[in-house]
Amino acid sequence: MKHTQLCIGLLFLTFSCYAQESPVPLTYQSTLLGYGMNSVYDSYLSQLEYTGENVGLYYEQTKMTGLMGGRIAEQHLFTGNYAWSKNKPETASYYTGIFEYDYGMHYRFNPTEKLQVFTGAQVGGLLGFVYNTRNGNNPATGKFHLNLGLSVIATYKLKIKSQALLFRYQVEAPLVGAMYAPQFGQSYYEIGLGDNEDLIHFASLHNYLSVRNRLSVDIPLNRVTFRLAYIHSFYETRINDLDTQINRNTFCIGISRNFFTVSGKQNHNHYRHVFE
Amino acid sequence: MYSNSRTFSAGIFILLFLLFPACVEIEEYPNNPRGNFEALWKILDERYCFFQYKEVDWEKIHSEYAKRINDNMANESLFKLLDEMLQELKDGHVNLYTPFDVGRYWKWYEDYPKNFNSDLIDKYLNRDYSIAGGVRYKILDDNVGYLYYGDFSSGLGESSLDYIIDKLAICSGLIIDVRDNGGGLLSNVDKFVARFVNEKTLVGYIQHKTGKGHDDFSKPFPRYTEPSTRLRYQKPVIVLTNRSCFSATNDFVNAMRYCPNVTILGDKTGGGSGLPFNSEIPNGWMVRFSACPVFDADMQHIEFGIEPTIQVDLLDADVREGKDTLIETARNLLKR
User: How far is A233 from chain B (nearest CA, A)?
Assistant: First the structure.
């Protein structure tokens, strides 16, 4: 199941299309709240997998720039996710917090009038923790990553009867970067004493795999556009004989907005046709 | 443009596809007696830190105990067997926690004289003692300061230490009684010891495992005690010990050995120098085990305890007279 989801995501990374012109520098913005299920395996804390629920806040802003004839979009993505889970016998709990920020630049293709595809690169970071409620000297692990990765977005406009819909799919996968990881049996007490060598490691696909899939539909109703989304996030590290795997499936609801801002007389004149 | 981007994207896809086998496959043991036995054995095999020092043949132990596992065992029988296996490690930091019992190895103090009587401590403290955090303290009749600290888990704030030292500064010396203190937070140890050194002092080393092999260890990392920038005690100090000084208390006694004007008096400590980690087996039982060995400043193990500078046992004759032999000996030494 996990591999199927990942493969679907990666297939989108191979997708590229012919380009067409779009004259208006639109900004797409959405804020979503989500709830879903998660599983966590962290061998520094336990040899058992924990499963439970998660809640998340997702913010996205994608803005068309004037670069390359208006074909470059810049994107800010912020994710805050908090999860609680138990081991199978329900004798212990994990609390997991993950915060992610990514900045991306995408090149836009317009294969058809209804379909747009954006492919590009992202830089970003992840900060997080997994806390085990009953461990003594290994109660938690910290997560820290700086990434450079790929991202693909596909949007498709559809009209069912009189209802306009916008389907959107995005997949992101970090490729290289740096990550924090303690040694196999190293305690945070020892790190606190100053033994902090070899804590930051080169990260790439050999020891770090992370894929995020976001599938959404925008439903304009009167003056508000609602967004329903399914977000799948897969995070895995294998370093220093320590394995971590965090899998989240989150269903979201929120509001999206499409707008553009014009500043300065010259810009105003340039986009006058939009208002008239 | 189209051709280039398609080639690039296809290349990325192939690269990612080839690397997919690197995905973590979570090794799961079945939740039955054999699965739980194997999971427990493996956790210790990969993570326990004293196999070599204690010359434990863990493979042989696996062979011996695996024969005794059967899939129809009740939980209580399984617990007894797993606990028996863990006791082969002779380690007070190795425990198996279940909803109905806790597996433990307590021979490090059960096989030795107690050298401690809490009724006597109450008698010395009487009713006019002070309490600061987890410390009970007073000035004895002969102007010797006495403090009892029975648990390094109980609170020990910097302000409390200031008050204690300030009050006992007029004494001819200080008795720090940590008998029957089974350990607690190393941060409290560091805070306490910092009041008795005047310069940065090497008190030991710590290691950690870098891999799953029995001899995969990091380079020893030195542990220093920095002098506190607040009040520090400058007069003679005697630390009272017995076999029940374990874990963080063992670490405290070790560090105090390297402080000026400090004498260790009483019985050998109980040891327990491995910093314990936790894990669990498929049925949810938690196991605690020594994960990081801690050494003294000469890179010697202190897992089996620390010898006192002056060996003194609690005498029955003194107890009958309401006296604590260790406290009385310490008072006499401090009055000189």
Answer: 15
Cβ within 8 Å, pair A186-B49: no
Q: Given the DSSP bridges, would you call strands B237-241 and A115-132 parallel, antiparallel or unpaired?
A: unpaired
Residue B10: list chain A partners with CB under 8 A: 14
Other CB atoms within 10 A of residue B14 CB: 11
CB spacing of A13 vs B9 below 8 angstroms: yes
> pLDDT digit string (tens) for A131-158?
999 999 999 999 999 999 999 999 999 9
Inter-chain contacts counted by CB atoms under 8 A, chains A and B: 150
- Which helix (H) or strand (E) segment holds residue A35: the answer is strand A27-42
Q: By the 8 A CB rule, do B301 and B269 touch?
A: no
Whether the pLDDT of residue A10 is over 90: the answer is no
Q: What is the CATH number of the domain that holds A265?
A: 2.40.128.100
pLDDT at B336 over 90: no
Domains annotated for chain B, with CATH where assigned, are: 33-109 (3.30.750.44), 111-196+232-271+306-335 (3.90.226.10)
Question: Closest Cα partner for B34 from B57, B76, B65, B80?
Answer: B65
Percent of all residues in chain B with a pLDDT value above 70, rounded to a whole number: 93
Q: Flag if A173 and B16 touch (Cβ within 8 Å).
A: yes
B220-267 pLDDT tens trace:
999 999 999 999 999 999 999 999 999 999 999 999 999 999 999 999
What's the number of domains chain A is made of? Answer: 1
List the domain range (segments joined by +) for residue A107: 2-275
Q: Give Cα separations from A268 to A20, A120, A273 (angstroms).
A: 24, 29, 9
Query: What's the CA dihedral at B80, B85, B87, B93 to 10 degrees?
Result: -100
Cα–Cα distance between A189 and A193 in angstroms, integer? Answer: 6
A3, A11, A136 member nearest B278 (Cβ): A136
Decide which of B295 and A161 is more confident.
B295
Interface of A with B in 211-230 (CB under 8 A): none
For residue range B162-216, what is the model confidence (pLDDT) as tens digits? Answer: 999 999 999 999 999 999 999 999 999 999 999 999 999 999 999 999 999 999 9
pLDDT band at B23 (very low <50, low <70, confident <90, very high): low
